[in-house]
Design goal:
The protein has one domain: Alpha-Beta Plaits (2-Layer Sandwich). The chain has a two-stranded antiparallel ribbon with strand order 1-2. A hairpin with a 4-residue loop joins β1 (23-25) and β2 (30-32). The protein has helices at residues 48-52, 68-81; strands at residues 23-25, 30-32. The longest helix has 14 residues, at 68-81. It is built from 2 helices and 2 strands, in the order ββαα. The chain is an alpha+beta fold and 82 residues long. One iron/sulfur cluster (SF4) is lined by residues 2, 18-20, 22-23, 32, 37-40, 47-49. The site of one iron/sulfur cluster has 14 residues, from loops. GO terms for molecular function: 4 iron, 4 sulfur cluster binding; metal ion binding.
Length: 82
């Protein structure tokens, strides 16, 4: 999963573009739910939020480093739940 750092300027651009609805506005800045972020695996070739973020504040979450296979399995779980 990816993570939004405190460099986020709350520009609102990423939230509507996330295919997994993993991004929400938290207490101060936008946040990513690691249980929902597949790094866009299953939907797009590149993470949409990273492509769009004007301040490049969305790195991989060091606490949620996942393989492509793991991300794919998460995608399939999320699809099954909808
Ligand atoms: Fe959503 Fe994709 Fe960004 Fe993860 S990488 S938060 S799934 S847009
Ligand atoms: Fe924050 Fe970047 Fe999302 Fe804008 S696109 S709300 S700066 S994380």
């Amino acid at each position: 999963a990816l993570r939004i750092t405190d460099e986020c300027i709350n520009c609102d651009v990423c939230e509507p573009e996330c295919p997994n609805q993993a991004i929400t506005l938290g207490q101060e800045i936008y946040e990513i739910d690691p249980d929902k972020c597949t790094e866009c695996v299953g939907h797009f070739d590149e993470p949409q939020c990273v492509q769009l973020c004007p301040v490049s504040c969305i790195p991989v979450d060091p606490q949620h480093v996942e393989s492509r296979e793991t991300l794919w399995q998460k995608f399939q779980r999320l699809q099954a739940a909808t």
